Each structure stands twice: as C-alpha cells, then as structure tokens.
C-alpha cells in the first residue's frame, strides 16, 4: 500500500482537552486510529504523527521528500511563521495543508500561511473531517481504493 504521512505540529497532541469549543472533543489518539482506518479503506498506508519540536517536523518532511510520498500537513502554529517548516515542505512532492478550525475567522495572525503557496490545496474550518477529505483526495490522485 502507498504510504501517506499525516503530520501534525505543536499542541495538536492535546486534541480532546485543548480548547474543545474550537477543536472538538476527539482525542489525538482517536483521530489517529480513525485516519489509519480511513486510509486502509482507501488503499493507503496512513502514518499519523505529532510533534511539538520543529526540528522533528523538519526531519519528517525530509523523510517524506526522500520517500516521494504525499503528506497531509497540519503544521498548527508553525503554519503562520516557520520558514524552516515551509522550506522543508517545499521539498515534498505533494502536500495538502489542513486546519481543523477556520483560521480566517480567527485572529489576524492566523490569516497568513507560509505553507499555502506550495500546497496542492488547503482545507480549513471543516473540523477533523478535513483530514478525511485530504486523504480522499490523495486516494483519488493515486487511483487507490474504491473511490480512486
Ligand atoms: C490549527 C490552526 C492554527 O492557527 C493553530 O495554531 C493550531 C491549529 C488548526 O488546525 O485549526 O494549532 O492549525
């Protein structure tokens, strides 16, 4: 099966307890399990990771670049200012930027993304379902799974 990395940045490991009015009640562990299942049904080997350390994220993006695999990327706060993450993401063949919340309806500092210009597409504000939509797009592009 084709590997897809779903990479998550700082504070997303606290899903379920972090600002549930914004991010919902589902835990990161439950999200991860769900996305692995969704991936399997789409013919994708989904690996879900989360880090609070920028260098670790950069390393994972290098890994994706070397593997030539698709990435679903919620870089969280790094989205808005990390040139290191943007430079690493730019080496990845295809990545989809995902945000759980509608960043454009929030504080002005969330309106700018250093990642969007090189992303295949951006999904924001559709809750955790945004990750599923991103995986469905990857499967369609790769021609895997029932909907491919
Ligand atoms: C987020 C939005 C970011 O502005 C924020 O820093 C996050 C999560 C989202 O998924 O809505 O941590 O990327």
Describe this structure in words.
This protein is an alpha/beta fold and 148 residues long. It has a single domain (2-142), classed as Rossmann fold (3-Layer(aba) Sandwich), CATH 3.40.50. It is built from 5 helices and 5 strands. It has helices spanning 20-23, 28-41, 54-67, 83-89, 129-142; strands spanning 2-8, 44-50, 70-74, 94-99, 121-124. Strands 2-1-3-4-5 form a 5-stranded parallel β-sheet, sandwiched between helices. Helix 3 (54-67) runs parallel beside helix 4. The protein is globular, with a radius of gyration of 14 Å. It starts with a strand and ends in a 6-residue tail after the last helix. The model has no long low-confidence stretch (mean pLDDT 96). The site of 1,3,4-trihydroxy-5-OXO-cyclohexanecarboxylic acid has 10 residues, from loops.
